[in-house]
Amino acid sequence: MKKKLCILLCGLFIVFNVSCSPALKLNEIDTQINKFLDITHAELLEVIKNKKAFIIDANGSKSYNTGHIPGAIDYAVYNGEELKSKLPENKQQLVVCYCGSPKCPAWYKAASEVESYGYENIKHYKKGIKGWIKKGGPLEE
Fold first, then answer.
1. Is pLDDT above 90 for 17?
2. Does 35-134 carry CATH code 3.40.50.11590?
3. Can you tell me the distance from the alpha carbon of 107 to that of 129, in angstroms, rounded to the nearest whole number?
4. CB 124 within 8 A of CB 95
5. What is the CA radius of gyration of the chain?
6. What is the dihedral of CA 37, 108, 115, 58, to 10 degrees?
7. What mean pLDDT comes out for the span 110-121?
8. What was the pLDDT predicted at 66?
9. Binning pLDDT at 50, 70 and 90, where does residue 34 land?
């Protein structure tokens, strides 16, 4: 079972441009994914209220245009050099990435790109947009 899961996760890493050697063990993959801490719903509400986070929606433009977490940018539009130019000057500022739900891996590509630019305070809103809506979070269109 672990071997099949490792193969599946390695496939995901290849799709999302994350290095993964065939010899990479499952716990090493978990370490790569888990290097980004989760942010709770309450914490996210607080940083939005105080404008203390840069937020990235990795759901794609169709979902983004339907409704997104207030202040979030559309990763489908802003990635690469465009994302780099949008990021805050202070590389210690909190950056929050999210996608559709706890099972969606799209956030990881955005978080990894932000990290590649030298940012160190990157968190994942694991509930995603579905969890945000379920908790009654406001949407911006």
1. no
2. no
3. 11
4. no
5. 15
6. -110
7. 96
8. 96
9. confident
Q: What is the pTM of this model?
A: 0.78
Distance (Å, rounded) from C-alpha 94 to C-alpha 83? 15
Please give the Cα distance from 119 to 112 (Å, whole number): 10
| Length of the chain (residues) | 141
User: Which DSSP string do the residues of 42-97 spell out, in sequence order?
Assistant: HHHHHHHHTT-EEEEE-S-HHHHHH-BSTT-EETTTS-THHHHHHS-S-TTSEEEE
State how far the Cα of 68 lies from the Cα of 104, in Å rounded to an integer.
16
Whether residue 96 is predicted with pLDDT greater than 50 in this model: the reply is yes
- Terminal CA-CA length for the chain: 42
What six digits make up the tokens of 50?
Answer: 């105080």
CA torsion, points 86, 107, 15, 113, in degrees to nearest 10? 30
Please give the Cα distance from 101 to 6 (Å, whole number): 21
C-alpha 97/C-alpha 110 separation (Å) is 7
Comparing CA positions, the residue from 14, 23, 71 lying closest to residue 45 is 71
Structure tokens of 97? 């990435």
Question: Which two three-digit tokens encode residue 71?
Answer: 């202040």
